Known about the structure:
Layout: H1 3-20, E1 40-43, E2 46-51, H2 110-114, E3 118-120, E4 123-125, E5 135-139, H3 151-159, E6 164-170, H4 182-199, E7 202-208, H5 219-232, E8 239-242, H6 252-269, E9 275-277, H7 280-283, H8 286-291, E10 299-306, H9 313-322, E11 327-333, H10 345-358, E12 362-367, H11 393-404
Helix pairs in contact: 3-4, 5-6
Amino acid sequence: MNSKMTALLLALISAVAFIVVPAGQTVDSGIQTVTDSTEYTVSADNAEGTPTAENSDSNISTQAPAETTTAVQTTKPEGVAEETTAPVDEDLVNHTGATAEKTDAPMGTAVQQHGQLSVKGANIVDMHGENFQLKGMSTLGVAIYPEYISKECFAKFRDYGVNCIRLAMYTQGENNSYIGNEYQNKELVDKGVQYCTELGMYVIIDWHILSDGNPHQYKSQSMEFFDEMSAKYKDYPNVLYEICNEPNGCSWNDVKSYADAVIPVIRKNDPDSIVIVGTPTYSQDIHEAAKNPLTQENVVYAMHFYAASHQFLKDRMSEYYNKGMPILISEFGTCDYTGNGGNNLQETRAWLELCDKYDIGYINWNMSHRNESSACFYQGTSPEHWNESNLREGAKFVLDWIKNH
């Protein structure tokens, strides 16, 4: 390039700079930025930083001041996390504690019709103040049979009139229990909640203690778990929390002190959801809880029965319901207390008739193909493609009851 051409190019560059840059400003080697007065807030569900309400877009002029240039901000305010380019699994909700993106319940579904549930006297009521019965199925450990955390499977249960899925998450004692496998279990719980939400079904997040009979054994882990879950699902009207499945080998005072620690963690994030609290002796001793009840609102007490073993508990349930105690049968079986053995369908009928009389909800155990009487399915059943021929005797009886009542 000769000297004349070089001089001409330099002159053109100078002219462009003179036109673009306002008087009194200089050109530097980077992109010029302007400082705006918008304050940024950073929270778990707002990692990118958005304007505060005091400086919302409706109060900010879109007209740039005279003699200034409006440029793209090239750096984030201090403390705001950088964006990540890591791939996102669209089927999962993230586990950062952020509020999950809520899907509105489909028209005509239980959640769309009944909305947020609460406790009034001895009953669960819907958003209209009318008694509402949860009628559901429970998983057998979300990580033991993860294939049953399936939208298609849940939808087939919904076709029978099931309006609730209980996501039983073993804390210890079974393969892939929560302690030591936290991330896997949270993934499956999140999938289950999302599928139920998309289907307009209620869902119970169950801290499924069993072999760890005293809930205090993993109290700190429980508090962390329910803090994360309640922060994530605080805006979901279909989510309920069960904080201790079947306390055993401990007293009601042990359970109550545990509940008094865990419930405030949930209430801090989600003040309106129902919390289900287990009772001593594998959630049979509701009478012990009645002597010194919890003081928090929207709490129900869990009672469990297995029809071939626990006929005597019907009178107990009737007595304490009529005394004003809110009760949920958050687990029951048609067989004996081992989850196996012969079914007693006559006694199951008597239990379900009593529950229907009082509008007490009930959740059947269990959604799996384990080789036992309490399992819903015969072995080899596809979670997505089952039909009535795949159902064991007990499950068929319960689902027919729900469908016709």
